[in-house]
Amino acid sequence: MIQIENLHKSYVMGHNSLHVLKGLELGIEEGEFVSIMGSSGSGKSTLLNILGILDDYDKGTYYLGGKLIQGLNETKAAMTRNKMIGFIFQSFNLISFKNAMENVALPLYYQKVSRKRRNQIALEYLDRLGLKDWAHHLPSELSGGQKQRVAIARALISQPQIILADEPTGALDSTTSFEVMEILKEINDQGKTVIIVTHEHDIAAMTKKIIRLKDGVIEEVIKNGELQLFKDRVRTE
Amino acid sequence: MFDVDVWQEIFSTIKKNKLRTFLTGFSVAWGIFMLMILLGSGNGLQNGVKEEFSSNSINIMWMWTGDTSIPFEGMKEGRTIKFNNGDYSYLKEKGENIENVSSRYYLPGTIIYTYKNEYGSFETSSCHPSLLGMEKVNIVSGRFINDLDLNDFRKVIVIGDNIKKALFKEEDPIGKYVKLNNVPFKVIGLTFDKDRHSERTAYIPVSTAQRIFNGADRVHTFAVTTKMVSTAEEAEAITDKVREGLAARHKFDPKDKKAMGSFNMLAQYIRTMKIFQAIKIFVWIIGIGTLIAGIVGVSNIMLILVKERTREIGIRKALGASPASVITLVLLESVLITTVAGYAGLLLGVGIMEGINYGLEQALATGGGEGIFFRNPTVDFTTAITSMIILVVSGALAGYLPARKAANVKPIEALRDE
């Protein structure tokens, strides 16, 4: 699903150049449930932005679903994001003056789906996430967990190949966090590739593969079977 | 562009920021409102002055005589100059750039008009038939003096509405005889003038007047129409030429304004209209200036709006909004605000001017409003449409910079958690 080879990215700030990703190699198969971890400055946000086609890279190759993602113009990038990637953000990023249903339907608006049809689909997705009764509420009238579930519905509605979640539980209490992770797991069980970026070990431990970044390269990959070991190690740290 | 969804998006943002949208729109509405008021007033003033001119042909010129004030070819000053029928023939046949000529002989003393038991004194204007097209004479029944009347020295008279009311009351005066100092004249026509320039005036053929009232071939004044020219200088040149011709006939200095007086309406008219052209340009400059202030206001507000909505635009872009769709959103909102607000200002401005116009017309109809140099202070359709086009274009201009800024929003930066 995702094939990254020799990925380099640096940011120019004034006269200084900050080399963030230094020849990163990464492969993620279809249907995987991966978390990316790393301390701040390790390059995990940069990697997520490149994965989500929100940012360009300097060197290397990035294949998403067999398609080379390189030097796309803004319109093309927007189209690709819309069709292939579902985003979930830490601060939900719902549009405040649109109700839950309209927020969920927004990606379909950019696919030129008629208003009636996209609202109907949005209702189905909200129903699936147990929020049907809240469809006509504004985000300000929803709890944090409900907001994130609306955001998840919005990420799913365009039936993307991968779900990218940036600290999806960062703004939630632990009970709600586990609920959200449970939902993401279900989505994964249905065959979708889910990639989350997090710095919380217990959240990462709920995924099936952990990729730890350090100084712009992958330091370690912990696979499913080794997770128990990882958990124990975390506890002792 | 006329996608219902786009409009719903725009209306939802406008609804969210009612006060700001109103204030933004107000500056534009105010600009167009002022433009309409200024243009309307300018038009009103111009129409009012035009109306004053319109009591006569604008290319009319009057000439009269007096005593010389400059010695000429050995003759002392103080000679009395008198026009005669020869001058009429001269002007008619040899006058350069002269189209029509009418001479007038002033009837001596007070002329008493009598019909049955009614009598009164009115102004008698002796003239040629051509006066009809030169001065404002509005025949409402019968006819004006013609060449036959003139050649046969017929005793015929055209009377104004006031004279008819005073002498004939409700009777139809046409064909009746009115006595002027005991000389019977047959009434052939009736004039009416709603601005009452000539209601107390009667017209008789100049030939008849000279014969009956001992005028011989004496002429007191000439009214002529000149060729239409477009500059005041050309009009003055025509006057000078006519003066030279008549001065040669009567042996006085052409520059002697006392010997012969003249007034060229056309030169006056052209100068006055020039002033109005200048006023019109001035009004447009001020109006456009006010409008620009409004547009800068819209642009400013839209910039702030885009800045405030950076995050929302970032979300939209992450979810698949193309730069074009973002530009459309901002641009259309800007055009919508300017057009709607501008249209409101336009309606209000035009409405107020129409209201003033209505009031003026009422005042004029009831006999008031005398001497008001203000007529029909309205803005014509073309001007209103032009203003509307200016509005839409300026709305697009106002939205352009903010829209470009919005299109350049980078989703990663917009979505970064603060």
Class per helix and strand makeup of chain A = alpha/beta
Continuous helix count of chain A: 8
Q: Looking at the structure, what is the overall shape of chain A? A: globular
Task: Bin the strand percentage of chain A.
Answer: 25-35%
Largest interface: A-B, 29 and 25 residues
Query: What is the number of strand segments of chain A?
Result: 10
Measured as a percent range, the helix fraction of chain A is: 25-40%
Instruction: Name the average pLDDT of chain B.
Output: 86
Could you list the spans of chain B in which at least 5 consecutive residues all have pLDDT below 50?
Answer: none
Tally of individual helices of chain B = 13
Order of helices and strands of chain A: EEEHEEHEHHHEHEHEEH
* Span of the ends, CA to CA of chain B: 35 Å
User: Can you summarize the main beta sheet of chain B?
Assistant: 8 strands, mixed
The major β-sheet of chain A equals:
6 strands, mixed
What is the beta-strand fraction of chain B? 15-25%
Secondary structure category of chain B: alpha+beta
What is the helix fraction of residues of chain B, given as a range? 55-70%
Task: Please tell me the total number of domains of chain B.
Answer: 2
Radius of gyration of chain A: 18 Å
Give the secondary structure arrangement, pairings included.
The complex is a heterodimer of chains A (237) and B (418).
Chain A: E1 2-13, E2 16-28, E3 33-37, H1 44-51, E4 59-64, E5 67-68, H2 74-84, E6 85-88, H3 100-109, H4 115-128, H5 144-157, E7 162-166, H6 174-189, E8 193-197, H7 201-204, E9 209-214, E10 217-222, H8 227-236
Parallel strand pairs in A: 3-8, 3-9, 6-7, 7-8
Antiparallel strand pairs in A: 1-2, 1-4, 4-5, 9-10
Helix pairs in contact in A: 3-4, 3-5, 4-5, 5-6
Chain B: H1 4-16, H2 18-53, E1 60-65, E2 83-84, H3 85-94, E3 98-104, E4 112-115, E5 118-121, E6 123-127, H4 131-134, E7 139-142, H5 147-151, E8 156-160, H6 161-168, E9 177-180, E10 183-191, E11 201-205, H7 206-212, E12 218-219, E13 221-226, H8 232-250, E14 260-264, H9 265-308, H10 310-318, H11 323-365, H12 381-407, H13 411-415
Parallel strand pairs in B: 6-11, 8-10
Antiparallel strand pairs in B: 1-13, 1-14, 2-12, 3-13, 4-5, 4-9, 7-10, 8-11, 9-10
Helix pairs in contact in B: 1-11, 2-9, 2-11, 8-9, 9-10, 9-11, 9-12, 11-12
